[in-house]
Please model this.
Amino acid sequence: MHVIHIRIIVDDDDSKIWSLYDAGPRSIRCPLIFLPPVSGTADVFFQQILALTGWGYRVIALQYPVYWDHLEFCDGFRKLLDHLQLDKVHLFGASLGGFLAQKFAEYTHKSPRVHSLILCNAFMDPMMADAIDFMVDRIHLLQFHGTKYAAIDPSVVSAEELEVQKSRLSLSQEEP
Model:
């Protein structure tokens, strides 16, 4: 296995250096990119790099420079993908890396660069919490796709969710 360690500057600020390990076939144009937690670096994914490249995957483990807001990070990450000539990627984000992966997917939603998103111990933007109720209903409806229940009325899904919440509340009130 051949693992390349690269240091790349993509911003005008020469102090912002991306450090990465790139392993696996370069012919794969949609690699899996690992974004580490705040307490980790690119090398925390060493075992995953070994296993996945052994199965023929291209894997890139990143150590991102310090950015003081997520928009600046997203712009820098987009520039990095451009530099690496990667149009689409699979992102695996752990903790802060998961938050940044979500923000990048959101940042590029009009011209999607994220093919898939894998989150591990990630958190989300509190502003996104408002969309959760809508997404829960939508997920419930998607579970019925292709079944005789496919034409289910969305209000029934909301009513079902209400019943689930009520039963949880009554169970928690029964506990001493």
Q: What stands out?
A: The chain is about 40% helix and 20% strand. Residues 7 and 139 are 41 Å apart (CA to CA). The helical segments are 46-54, 70-83, 96-107, 132-143, 154-174.
